[in-house]
């Protein structure tokens, strides 16, 4: 309780302003198909460096929460999911709109999102206290294996193809090692460029990989959506439906709690994300429903399951990010970079050394989830207008903001020149089905893994058996091996079954 | 069903694995004179990249032979017609020329002047073809876009320099 009290102490007018600003930005990027919260967080990364670390992380948590809900209005009213997780919301949301209940569906999404986020945040805060005791057992060898486990998880779960995920993750890790070696200070593949010797340039690399590549995808598509006309949504005229939507959620507490729990637990798994959690929550809601045949035709329970799970992911993703220094999602990968740039080393000690900071971010998620309900109600029509924003305004505008942020970070022209390089790399990876998020995970986990690898070997006197000595490392290695092998084995078995079944 | 893949398809399938393998080889050659302590950790990843690149390339080739090439993120739209497709191709290449040009100009010439040029050029080129079909129409579009761009840059200047107090490269042309 003392820690939560300390965390609340971080909240003043500026912090609350940052949270609300982040939430609004999240709504905007969540609503625009093809622009994600990870892109927004990457673009604001340089701005956040000028803030206090807690304000910066709370701001980013606001963007993350806003982005999770932001995808719902276009999914429900236009059948155009703003983010991947919202595709599940559209399954029942759009049929409700077609029968004239769009405002009710939106209200369901808002309340389920808000309640789901609040429940998951409270649960994670409760979970962190016992977890911090367990995490203190983790030394350098264990943390090295955790980083390897994180890389394999993101490669296999976060990608449809394990091999492509592994190639992207290991390439990312190798790129992050283009810096001075941490023990002797010898330059490694820096080509005599001072900016590479000092520190790995995370800011331009992340903005390039997420932001510029996403803009290129938008340009390639030619427009944000295929919708021609501007959608309309009148708040006052729909007041009765909004009330009905609130009642829909409040009279189905079990569905909301179940969705939130699923979201939280899936969020803990690095790389799993809201698209997986929402489908699981939706599937279970359908399975346990008394009217499963109505799912997909406009059943409020479908929206409740998807949206409560969607926001549960946000709090869940903070567990591996803070506890192990392994990001749970693309957005938390950028948040982790922000922590590193602020000089905070995420990992087991952060829960004891910087507990108020961790709890302040979780409180940020809790407050943002609550604020989603009133702010989302007022801003629904604005969010819908964003869906039809023309590419010719969106692309150069975001490009200018991204470049400005990159340059102002350390006033380096070299950083600005890295933007198109990593933007092109991100585009090539996406067009060929290689997960950008695995590459970013490699970038972030590479130096963390190297630090723990060197520390472990120094402590053990260069004895490599240190990595398999403790029972914790056995479990972690077994999990890593299982994760790498599980995908190919299950694919081989399903292929074999198909061949046997074929005439 | 088996089919013979074309050179273009093979090139596309091997692009990412070849880039990754090339980078790993460059890394290896650049670090081979370093002491073992500085090299031992990256060496593990060099090996991982080379191995996974080789396997990815092999798998991609096998898939091509089986007539099921790798697919990445979808960029298709519902917009039909050869004209729209040509416009999308042109916009795409204009974007990739504009991004590095903008990066160089913004840091070497000046941020605000380059921002105005970028907004004008991309604002015109990325506009759907229906609104700028005739030469006169295109000129009108460009002039109006340039005027809007100037207003946006002015607002940006006031916000960034005067409100936030962030220093950006000085424009040399004003």
Relevant terms:
heterodimer, A: 503 residues, mainly alpha, 23 helices, B: 174 residues, 73% helix
Describe this entry's structure for a reader.
The complex is a heterodimer of chains A (about 500) and B (about 170). Chain A is mainly α and about 500 residues long. Chain A has one domain (about 1-225, about 235-500). In chain A, about 75% of the residues lie in helices and about 0% in strands. Chain A contains 23 helices and no strands. In chain A, helix 2 (about 15-30) runs parallel beside helix 4 (about 55-70), helix 7 runs parallel beside helix 12 (about 240-250) and helix 9 (about 160-175) crosses helix 22 (about 435-460). Chain B has about 170 residues and is mostly helical. Chain B has helices at about 5-30, 35-65, 80-110, 110-125, 135-165. The termini of chain B are far apart. In chain B, helix 1 runs antiparallel to helix 2 (about 35-65) and helix 3 (about 80-110) packs antiparallel against helix 4. Chain B folds into two domains: about 5-65; about 95-165, no CATH class. Chain B is built from five helices and no strands. Classes of the chains: A mainly alpha (about 500), B mainly alpha (about 170).
């Amino acid at each position: 309780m003392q820690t939560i009290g300390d965390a609340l102490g971080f909240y003043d007018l500026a912090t609350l302003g940052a949270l609300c600003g982040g939430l609004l930005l999240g709504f905007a990027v969540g609503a625009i198909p093809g622009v994600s919260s990870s892109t927004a967080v990457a673009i604001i990364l340089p701005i956040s460096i000028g803030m206090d670390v807690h304000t910066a992380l709370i701001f980013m948590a606001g963007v993350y929460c806003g982005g999770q809900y932001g995808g719902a209005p276009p999914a429900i009213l236009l059948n155009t999911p703003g983010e991947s997780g919202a595709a599940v919301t559209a399954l029942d949301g759009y049929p409700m709109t077609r029968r004239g209940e769009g405002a009710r569906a939106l209200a369901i999404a808002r309340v389920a999102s808000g309640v789901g986020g609040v429940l998951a945040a409270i649960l994670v805060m409760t979970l962190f206290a016992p977890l911090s005791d367990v995490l203190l057992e983790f030394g350098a060898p264990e943390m090295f294996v955790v980083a390897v486990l994180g890389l394999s998880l993101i490669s296999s779960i976060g990608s449809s193809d394990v091999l492509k995920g592994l190639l992207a993750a290991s390439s990312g890790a190798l790129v992050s090692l283009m810096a001075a070696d941490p023990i002797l200070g010898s330059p490694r593949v820096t080509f005599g460029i001072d900016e590479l010797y000092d520190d790995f340039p995370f800011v331009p690399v992340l903005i390039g990989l997420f932001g510029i590549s996403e803009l290129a995808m938008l340009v390639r598509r030619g427009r944000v959506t295929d919708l021609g006309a501007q959608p309309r949504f009148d708040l006052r005229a729909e007041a009765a439906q909004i009330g009905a939507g609130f009642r829909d959620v409040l009279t189905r507490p079990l569905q909301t709690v179940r969705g939130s729990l699923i979201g939280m637990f899936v969020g803990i798994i690095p790389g799993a994300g809201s698209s997986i959690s929402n489908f699981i929550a939706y599937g279970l809601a359908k399975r346990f429903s008394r009217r499963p045949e109505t799912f997909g035709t406009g059943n409020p329970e479908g929206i409740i399951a998807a949206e409560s799970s969607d926001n549960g992911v946000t709090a869940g993703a903070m567990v591996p990010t803070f506890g192990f220094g392994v990001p749970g999602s693309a957005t938390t990968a950028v948040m982790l970079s922000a922590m590193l740039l602020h000089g905070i080393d995420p990992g087991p000690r952060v829960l004891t050394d910087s507990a108020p900071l961790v709890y302040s971010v979780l409180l940020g998620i809790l407050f943002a989830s609550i604020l989603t309900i009133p702010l989302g109600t007022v801003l629904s029509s604005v969010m819908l207008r964003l869906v039809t924003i023309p590419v010719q305004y969106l692309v150069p505008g975001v490009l200018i903001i991204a470049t400005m942020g990159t340059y102002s970070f350390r006033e380096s022209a070299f950083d600005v020149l890295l933007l198109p390089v990593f933007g092109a790399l991100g585009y090539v990876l996406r067009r060929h089905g290689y997960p950008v998020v695995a590459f970013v995970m490699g970038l972030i986990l590479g130096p963390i893994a190297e630090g723990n690898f060197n520390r472990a070997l120094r402590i053990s006197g260069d004895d490599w058996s240190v990595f398999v000595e403790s029972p914790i490392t056995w479990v972690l290695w077994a999990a890593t091996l299982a994760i790498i092998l599980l995908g190919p084995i299950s694919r081989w078995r399903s292929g074999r079954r198909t061949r046997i079944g074929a005439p | 069903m088996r089919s013979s893949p074309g050179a273009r398809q093979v090139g596309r399938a091997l692009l990412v694995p070849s880039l990754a393998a090339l980078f790993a080889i460059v890394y290896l050659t650049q670090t081979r004179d370093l002491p073992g302590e500085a090299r031992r950790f990256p060496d593990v990843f060099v090996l991982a990249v080379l191995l996974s690149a080789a396997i990815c390339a092999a798998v991609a080739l096998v898939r091509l032979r089986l007539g099921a090439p790798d697919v990445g993120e979808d960029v298709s739209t519902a917009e039909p017609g050869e004209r729209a497709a040509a416009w999308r191709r042109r916009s795409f290449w204009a974007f990739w020329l504009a991004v590095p040009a903008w990066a160089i100009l913004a840091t070497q010439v000046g941020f605000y002047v380059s921002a105005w040029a970028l907004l004008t050029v991309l604002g015109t080129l990325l506009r759907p073809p229906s609104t700028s079909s005739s030469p006169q129409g295109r000129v009108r579009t460009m002039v109006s876009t340039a005027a809007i761009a100037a207003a946006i840059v002015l607002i940006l200047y006031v916000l960034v320099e005067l409100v936030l107090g962030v220093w950006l490269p000085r424009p040399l042309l004003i």
